[in-house]
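Example record

The entry below shows one chain as it appears in the dataset: sequence first, then structure tokens.
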Amino acid sequence: MRRTSQIAPVTLRHSLHHQAKSLSYHSQWDLPSRLSKYSDTLWDIAKAEVEKKENLESDGDGVEVWEKSLLFMGNKNGGKTTIILRCLDRDEISKPTLALEYTFGRRAKGHNRPKDIAHFWELGGGTSLLDLIRIPITTDNIRAFAIILVLDLSKPNELWPTMDSLLRVTRNHVDKIITKLGKTNPKVATEIKQKMWNNMSKDHPDHELIDPFPIPLVMIGSKYDLFHEFDPEMRKIMCKTLRFISHYYGASLVFTSKSEALLLKARVLINHLAFGFDRSKSISVDQNKPLFIPAGLDSLNQIGPPPASDSDIGKLHAHTPVDLWKKIFNKTFPPKSTNDLKDVSDPAQDPQYAEYEVDAMRAQKNQELEQYKRNSSKSWKEMDFES
């Protein structure tokens, strides 16, 4: 999305103003010839300038994208809303996200510069509303879109199913958009594919061993304060696994909690994607401390092998590196059904969405419906059927 709504009128006015000043300056010397010249070219020049500007924008070459979009997804009650509010400096009490919610923020990168806009989308319901992912991610904004995956570290048995479902559905949707763009706008499709590797230098030892996510991805491990109380061996397995997954997908990884210091670290990564602020180059890989690893700064050598013995690894029949890590992780933390589909409550009964007039009318209509059902049932039973 670009700030283009005012370009044509502004450019046109500027051209007219410039030509008018020039005409006024020369009119006292050679009015007839000058008047004829400018009357022939005034609108042509202005029109040409506007068309030139529009052509540059339609090509997309060298034009800065002013507006970014981010989609937050992850575990239910995992802290997504809290993170968004902190990124936008809003001192509000977070409420459960109903389905798909939207807000936006503005930031200026310097003095006397216009504020950039970032669109923040939040998917509620954990993995129960996967179909809504396609709503905010479109062909129009795919070039300026990023995913923020928030995983609840205090629920390791739900971690892999949640992560796998959300990333798989999102990737499938994004791949379809890129395929479509490949037919309608090959230049943009190629640009997106090239940007996948922006955070990975060509001389990185793992360049041929990873499979970057098609659009920027940040993985946030929330509730670190609870995770820190886990058994050291459990923390080791979770840390190594999340490091591998984030590195394999070319993503950034950060652990956070309600601590302002940790929220600030997450905010740095998010603001880089949302407003183009400087990218942090600091790194923390100590499993006894909160992880902070910007995309492209980790390596398979530093992560090490999967946390299992060689004999155990040999018994596992994995087809891909991700599948191997999945089997090892799930052996320690058996996947727990989150029952997301069954757990989605009726928002009409939620007190936080109460509206007296609407609720009163709804109650009346419910009563009328029940009365209609009873009458219909009674009429049906009294009907005589020919044998």
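Notes for this example: Residues 1-39, 56-63, 340-344 have pLDDT under 50 and may be disordered. The longest helix spans residues 7-59.
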